[in-house]
C-alpha cells in the first residue's frame, strides 16, 4: 500500500513536458509571479510536492528562462524542492536537480548560489556542477591552446620554409646574368652626307665588337655609293676639264646648248659633241647616285644604335644603376629632322631636289 501511494504521488508531482509547454504558453506574467509566490510559501512550509507541481511547468517557460530575476528564484527553489522530496528515488532526485542547476548555469554563467539559503545538499551539488563546468571549460581552453600552439608551430615551420625558399630564389635571381645593351642616340644630320658617308655612319657609329649583318650591309652600300659617285664625278669632271681647256669651249648663255662655242678645228667638232654628251651622262649619273645615296641612307637610318652588349649578374647591375630617390625631370622633346624629296626645274630640264629640316 505504501509503495502504491509513493508511485501515485510521483505521478502527480512530475508534470509531463507537453503539459508544461501548454501551461507556459497561456500563462500571463501576473499568473507566473502569482505562481512563484505560491511556490515560495509552499517551499517555506516544506511542501516539496506542491512546489514541484507549481514550478515544474514554469522551468522551461520563456517567461522564466528569459527573465534573470524569475530564473534565479524558480530554478534553485525547484531544484531544492526536488532534491528534498523523499517521495522520489534518490537517483531521480539528483538527476532532476542537476538538470535544473545546469539550465540555470547555461543561461547565466556568472550565477552563484547563495550559501545558507537552500539545503546544504543543494549547495554542495551546485558547487560540484560549477566545478565540473569549470573543469570542462578549462579542458576546452587547454585543448584550444594546444591546437593553437600546434597551428603556430606549423605556421612557423611553413614561414621558415618560405623564407628559405625566398632567400634561395633571391640569391639565384641576383646571380642570374642579364644582357646589358648600351644604346646611343644618333643624329639624322650625318645621314645627309653623300659619298656613302651616311651609310658608313649607319653602320659604324658607336658600335664595338662584332659587326652585325645589318651594319655589314650599310658598309657595303656606303662603299658602293662612294665608288660610284667618285668614279662618275671624276669622269664627269675630267670630261668637263677636257672640253674647257682641251677644246677651248665655253658657254656664252648659261645652259643653252646652242651658246657653246669651241675654238677648235672643224674635224674635232664630232669629238666635242661626243665629249659633251658623255659629260652629261656622267653628270646625271653622279647627281642620281648622290640623291639615291642620301635618300636610301635616310630610309635605312635608325635613331638608336647599340654601342655595347655585355652580360653581367643582376647584383652588379643594381649596384651600377641604383634606383633614383625621386623621378627625373621631364625633358623637352626636340623637333625631329625631316627629309622631303621634291621636283626641281632646271634651265636644261627637270631634276630631283631634297629638302631637309633640322
Structure commentary:
62% of the residues lie in helices and 12% in strands. The chain is built from twelve helices and six strands. The N terminus is likely disordered. Helix 3 runs parallel beside helix 6 and helix 4 packs antiparallel against helix 6. Strand 2 and strand 3 form a beta hairpin. It is rod-shaped and about 165 Å long. With 358 residues, it is of the alpha+beta class. The chain folds into two domains: 126 residues; 142 residues. A two-stranded antiparallel sheet has the order 1-4. Strands 2-3 form a two-stranded antiparallel ribbon. Strands 5-6 form a two-stranded antiparallel ribbon.
SSE string:
HHHHHHHHEHHEEHEHEE
User: How are the strands of the biggest sheet laid out side by side?
Assistant: 1-4
* Main β-sheet description: 2 strands, antiparallel
Report the radius of gyration as a whole number of Å. Answer: 58 Å
Whole-number total of structural domains:
2
Question: In whole angstroms, how far apart are the ends?
Answer: 131 Å
Which range does the strand content fall in?
A: 5-15%
Classification by helices and strands: alpha+beta
Tally of helical runs:
12
Given as residue ranges, the uncertain stretches (5+ residues, pLDDT < 50) are 1-27
Defining key terms:
358 residues, alpha+beta, two-stranded antiparallel sheet, 12 helices, 6 strands, 12% strand, rod-shaped
Briefly summarize what is shown:
With 358 residues, the protein is of the alpha+beta class. 62% of the residues lie in helices and 12% in strands.
Amino acid at each position: 500500500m505504501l509503495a502504491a501511494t509513493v508511485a501515485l504521488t510521483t505521478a502527480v508531482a512530475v508534470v509531463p513536458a507537453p503539459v508544461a509547454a501548454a501551461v507556459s504558453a497561456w500563462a500571463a506574467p501576473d499568473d507566473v509571479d502569482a505562481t512563484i509566490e505560491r511556490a515560495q510559501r509552499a517551499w517555506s512550509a516544506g511542501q516539496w510536492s506542491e512546489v514541484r507541481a507549481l514550478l515544474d511547468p514554469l522551468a522551461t517557460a520563456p517567461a522564466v528562462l528569459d527573465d534573470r530575476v524569475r530564473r534565479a528564484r524558480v530554478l534553485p527553489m525547484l531544484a531544492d524542492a526536488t532534491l528534498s522530496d523523499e517521495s522520489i528515488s534518490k537517483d531521480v532526485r539528483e538527476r532532476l536537480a542537476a538538470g535544473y542547476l545546469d539550465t540555470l548555469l547555461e543561461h547565466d554563467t556568472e550565477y552563484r548560489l547563495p550559501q545558507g539559503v537552500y539545503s546544504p545538499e543543494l549547495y554542495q551539488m551546485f558547487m560540484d556542477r560549477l566545478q565540473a563546468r569549470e573543469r570542462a571549460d578549462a579542458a576546452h581552453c587547454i585543448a584550444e591552446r594546444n591546437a593553437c600552439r600546434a597551428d603556430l608551430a606549423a605556421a612557423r615551420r611553413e614561414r621558415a620554409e618560405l623564407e628559405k625558399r625566398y632567400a634561395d630564389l633571391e640569391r639565384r635571381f641576383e646571380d642570374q646574368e642579364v644582357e646589358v645593351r648600351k644604346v646611343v642616340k644618333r643624329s639624322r644630320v650625318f645621314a645627309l652626307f653623300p659619298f656613302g658617308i651616311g651609310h658608313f655612319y649607319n653602320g659604324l657609329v658607336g658600335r664595338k665588337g662584332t659587326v652585325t649583318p645589318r651594319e655589314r650591309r650599310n658598309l657595303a652600300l656606303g662603299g658602293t655609293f662612294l665608288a660610284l659617285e667618285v668614279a662618275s664625278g671624276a669622269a664627269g669632271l675630267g670630261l668637263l676639264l677636257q672640253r674647257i681647256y682641251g677644246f677651248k669651249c665655253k658657254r656664252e648663255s648659261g645652259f643653252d646648248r646652242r651658246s657653246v662655242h669651241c675654238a677648235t678645228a672643224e674635224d674635232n667638232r664630232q669629238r666635242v659633241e661626243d665629249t659633251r654628251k658623255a659629260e652629261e651622262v656622267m653628270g646625271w649619273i653622279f647627281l642620281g647616285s648622290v640623291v639615291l645615296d642620301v635618300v636610301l641612307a635616310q630610309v635605312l637610318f635608325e635613331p638608336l644604335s647599340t654601342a655595347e652588349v655585355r652580360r653581367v649578374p643582376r647584383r652588379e647591375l643594381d649596384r651600377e644603376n641604383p634606383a633614383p630617390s625621386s623621378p627625373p625631370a621631364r625633358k623637352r622633346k626636340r623637333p625631329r629632322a625631316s627629309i622631303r624629296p621634291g621636283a626641281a626645274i632646271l634651265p636644261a630640264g627637270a631634276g630631283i631636289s631634297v629638302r631637309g629640316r633640322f
